[in-house]
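2024-03-11 09:14:02 INFO worker-7 job=invfold-0412 stage=load source=structure_tokens
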């Protein structure tokens, strides 16, 4: 009887804590949201379910810091770490009022929230000297976010890296503030938590890669630059298509070589109409012996849209050769398209591994806020065939890797000439 009474008191206490503690409310709500996703249902079962429940219990027993602090966000994000679902997004909701004009920005910089932003407590000059001596092949080193600020990335503990601002010409980032947290889970693969360059809210990047001396997925929507964190300052980018490159294009690059760009398979009215008009205009135009199909930075979309290009290429490949350009910006439906085209004879993929974001998706773009109203989840609701899961995170490797320091189209033309 005494034992039953004691257990009742414990459960009542835990229940009361959950009702009054913002962190426990957010943690519980996040778990509930994730449990409804296709990735959780297919991956978190059996032994993985036991491990996941242990993780949740550890996080629930850990005292959290203030709601807008980094540790709070990091503890919540750990519930997402075990899921291989790179369409899932989790971020701290920025307070846009702080960035409406220069006066608001100056007020924000003097606020306690800004002053309490995570900081490095060591000697910055010593850190800078040590990192400057690191090999370019090492994840550790000095990175640049365009011309705006530089970050020193160092190993802070086992499988964890911290990025500290070393120099800055923008007032929103001060020397010593922490801009990057990386959690290693595979060779040059990381779960990343970034401070947004403009609004400084914490954001989870579920798949970060160190390639070509860059953190290749460190793009930030709504930032003041189109930069990524790179050790390579003011160097030409041959890997990615320019932001202003056309979404659809076909042109002749040699008598026997045509070049086809397809950057989206989205089915919103504007893209669908442009794609339909483009497809109609080229349906009888693929006549060269070789076709370079450029899927770099192709943003994905709907299978039914991608299938129209599969049909186009299927008619072409029996008597001609298709060279498919892919990079880390090739994602989602564009990755699935790549796999479909690889089944055809006379196709060769070239470039670098794709992003690894193709097992799940979102039909409706649903977002759910946690109870504190400080955080939001972009929820996935769509599951692709299970055989695609092996590509999640790692992507699709090309048949031929291209040199990242010279023009990719010229490299492919040279390869065609050597066949």
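2024-03-11 09:14:09 INFO worker-7 stage=emit residues=419
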């Amino acid at each position: 009887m005494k034992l039953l009474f004691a257990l009742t008191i414990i459960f009542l206490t835990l229940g009361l804590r959950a009702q009054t503690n913002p962190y426990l409310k957010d943690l519980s709500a996040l778990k509930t949201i994730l449990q409804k996703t296709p990735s959780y249902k297919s991956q978190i079962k059996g032994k993985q379910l036991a491990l996941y429940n242990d993780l949740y219990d550890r996080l629930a027993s850990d005292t959290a810091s203030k709601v807008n602090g980094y540790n709070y966000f990091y503890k919540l994000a750990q519930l997402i770490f075990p899921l291989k679902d790179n369409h899932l997004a989790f971020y701290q909701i920025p307070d846009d009022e702080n960035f409406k004009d220069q006066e608001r920005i100056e007020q924000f910089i003097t606020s306690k929230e800004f002053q309490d932003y995570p900081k490095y407590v060591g000697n910055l000059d010593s850190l800078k000297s040590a990192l400057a001596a690191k090999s370019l092949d090492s994840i550790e080193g000095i990175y640049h976010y365009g011309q705006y600020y530089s970050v020193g990335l160092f190993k802070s503990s086992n499988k964890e890296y911290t990025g500290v601002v070393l120099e800055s010409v923008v007032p929103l980032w001060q020397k010593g503030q922490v801009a990057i947290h990386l959690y290693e889970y595979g060779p040059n693969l990381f779960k990343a938590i970034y401070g947004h360059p403009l609004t400084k809210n914490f954001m989870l990047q579920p798949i970060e890669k160190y390639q070509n001396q860059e953190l290749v997925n460190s793009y930030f929507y709504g930032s003041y630059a189109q930069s990524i964190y790179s050790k390579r300052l003011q160097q030409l980018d041959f890997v990615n298509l320019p932001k202003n490159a056309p979404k659809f294009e076909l042109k002749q690059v040699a008598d026997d070589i045509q070049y086809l760009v397809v950057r989206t398979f989205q089915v919103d009215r504007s893209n669908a109409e442009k794609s339909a008009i483009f497809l109609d205009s080229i349906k009888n135009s693929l006549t060269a012996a070789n076709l370079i199909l450029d899927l770099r930075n192709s943003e994905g979309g709907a299978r039914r849209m991608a299938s129209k290009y599969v049909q186009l290429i299927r008619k072409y490949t029996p008597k001609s050769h298709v060279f498919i350009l892919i990079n880390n910006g090739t994602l989602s439906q564009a990755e699935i398209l790549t796999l479909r085209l690889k089944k055809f004879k006379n196709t060769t993929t070239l470039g670098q591994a794709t992003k690894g974001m193709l097992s799940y998706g979102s039909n409706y773009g649903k977002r759910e806020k946690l109870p504190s109203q400080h955080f939001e989840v972009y929820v996935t609701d769509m599951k692709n065939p299970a055989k695609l899961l092996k590509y999640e995170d790692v992507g699709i490797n090309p048949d031929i890797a291209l040199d990242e320091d010279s023009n990719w189209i010229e490299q492919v033309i040279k390869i065609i000439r050597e066949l």
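2024-03-11 09:14:09 INFO worker-7 stage=report msg="The mean pLDDT is 92."
2024-03-11 09:14:10 INFO worker-7 job finished
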